[in-house]
Amino acid sequence: MKSKFVFDTNAPISAILSPLSTNATAVKLAEKLGEVIYSDAAWLEFVDVLFRKKFDSYFTIQEREEIADRFKTRFKRKQVRVSIKVCRDPKDNIILELAVSAQANCIITGDQDLLSLHPFQGIPILTAADFIKKF
After folding, report:
1. What percent of the chain is modeled with pLDDT above 90?
2. Four-residue CA torsion sign, 99, 100, 104, 105
3. Residue 66: phi, psi to the nearest 5?
4. Quick check: 89 and 95 in contact, CB under 8 A?
5. Domain limits for position 33
6. pLDDT band at 1 (very low <50, low <70, confident <90, very high)
7. Peptide bond preceding 119: is omega within 30 degrees of 0, i.e. cis?
8. pLDDT tens-place string over residues 25-56
9. Is the Cβ–Cβ distance between 109 and 125 less than 8 Å?
């Protein structure tokens, strides 16, 4: 069975903005080791962030549409089957729900609200740098 990795929204956004970054290296490593997974809710959050005005100077609308299309073809969609309400930031619960539903091997994030829950139901929650060191 393939290993499954869940990335918080900011990690793939950072990877796109900076292809030589630690986040970009972590995404590539996760794909090499298994598959990066996302849920419908995680997809919607990714698109919402990607199309924020603050990224207008980095990407055109067309480029963002292409990035969104690549995200869906590059990563694997998984159905969420649980509801979790434990994170200080309620928006981060979607990451936990996805990881538990998919029996993920790891959550990769820079978000302290998620990192403070490490490990969550046996799933490691690591920064991109720690993920690279561990895996």
Report:
1. 99
2. positive
3. -65, -40
4. no
5. 3-134
6. confident
7. yes
8. 999 999 999 999 999 999 999 999 999 999 99
9. yes
